[in-house]
Amino acid sequence: MSRRPANHLNALALTLVLALPLAAQAHEGHDDAPPPAVSGESPRRQSDGSVFIPKPAQRQLGLRTLVAVAGEHPRSFELAGSVAMDPNAGGKVQAALAGRLEAGPQGLPSLGQAVKKGQVLAYVVPTAGVLERSSQLAQQAELRAAKGLAERRVARLRELADTVARKDIEAAESELQSLSARLAAVGAGLAQRDALVAPVTGVIASSNAVAGQVLDAREQVFEVVDPTRLRIEALAYDPAQAQDVASASLALPGGQAVPLRFIGAARSLREQALPLSFAGDAQALAQLALGQGVRLVVQTRTRVAGVRIPLIALQKNSSNQAIVWVKTAPEHYAPRVVHYQPLDGVHVAVTRGLQPGERVATQGASLLNQIR
User: Fold this and answer.
1) What CATH number does domain 77-87+227-303 carry, 3.40.630.30, 2.40.30.170, 3.40.50.300, 3.30.420.40?
2) 136-193: pLDDT as tens digits
3) Average of pLDDT values for 227-250?
4) Distance of alpha carbon 124 from its chain centroid, rounded?
């Protein structure tokens, strides 16, 4: 009976001794543990150069794609322009002679005031020198004296009409009429006023008028313009661009895009450039001021065949080639080397390397290019 407990104790001790090395090996084997499995939800670059990116990562990066559609697209370029008046709906009011400015029948017009064609805006009273005025007064006195003599002569001849030839009476009367007309002309010249009238119906765009102001001949006093008939004038420094204009658009300060109609191009240079003239919606252009600088986006008549994509979709590979990322599967994107031609500042036309119907990464394409 006393040997059985001893045997049981010996067997238990042997078991503990054998288990100690195994426990020690398990604690010392952290470096020998199998590596963790690679998660399938992390973006990574594949061996063929494509990129695997799961759906959650696509939403996190904000990826957006665009279906490639082939077509013919016009090229665009930007020109600097300014607001100009229609030559048939605007004009300048200038002084024809030197003189002093006086208000018109309704006073001097204010800026922005509406006027009608033929309306008198102001008067210019000629200013003559002392010698010139003295000469005119002397000439007026001589003509007045000669007229008096002619009147008395005509009266005597009429009294002797029975004995004097009719032709002598008619010659005296003609001389009297001539002296009267010359005297009236000299008198009108001393008190003449030059009326400044509105050349067209519109509003006063600019005014340099002050009552009593002394003007020089050909000096501009007013500028009248019809705000509903403004035009846009741009300068093209490349003659080829001036000959290839189809249409244009103008961005207003509020962001509204106004389509413009191309009227024509000049045939003489101005500041080493060819002026181009455009017309547009009257109400939209009426928001602009005469002479205000604007930027125009001009479309050409020649077109480029290809797939139109945003410029942000273009990236560079390690060989510095232009590429786009094409979505080949729900979670796979492949790079494609492409050839393109610029259309405008934000779009290009891919002429080779992209097939219609393929989905091209646009927003977030630069992030795809950085995945390794």
Assistant:
1) 2.40.30.170
2) 778 778 888 888 888 888 888 888 877 778 888 888 888 888 888 888 877 766 567 7
3) 89
4) 39
